[in-house]
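sry for the spam today, last one i promise. struct tokens for design, 111 residues
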């Protein structure tokens, strides 16, 4: 059973940056479509970004131009670089592959 583990969340001021990481327990991230989702407080989980097996990427309109999803096949990692963060980016962020979810990492954007 593959496990996903997110890390890199924290408290950041508006306009700041964070980089989230998603690690897999097996070497599969390099070929799978990997998604980042987030769940803001009191709201439903929403899709944020996808990196496909060929490394094509896609983003939700709300983060386009500010967030970048990438992968490092050698390290079996996927990243979400988040710049120009806004208070509305506050959420628990999850990494997803097929029906596998990580435990999530909290991102709080506040002054």
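last one done:
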């Amino acid at each position: 059973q593959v496990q996903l583990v997110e890390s890199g969340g924290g408290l950041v001021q508006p306009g700041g940056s964070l980089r989230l990481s998603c690690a897999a327990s097996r070497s599969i991230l390099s070929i799978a479509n990997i998604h980042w989702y987030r769940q803001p407080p009191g709201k439903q989980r929403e899709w944020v970004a996808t990196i496909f097996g060929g490394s094509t990427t896609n983003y939700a309109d709300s983060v386009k131009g500010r967030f970048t999803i990438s992968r490092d096949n050698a390290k079996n990692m996927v990243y979400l670089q988040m710049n120009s963060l806004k208070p509305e980016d506050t959420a628990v962020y999850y990494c997803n592959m097929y029906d596998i979810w990580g435990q999530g990492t909290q991102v709080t954007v506040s002054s």
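The two ends are 40 Å apart (CA to CA). ok im logging off now
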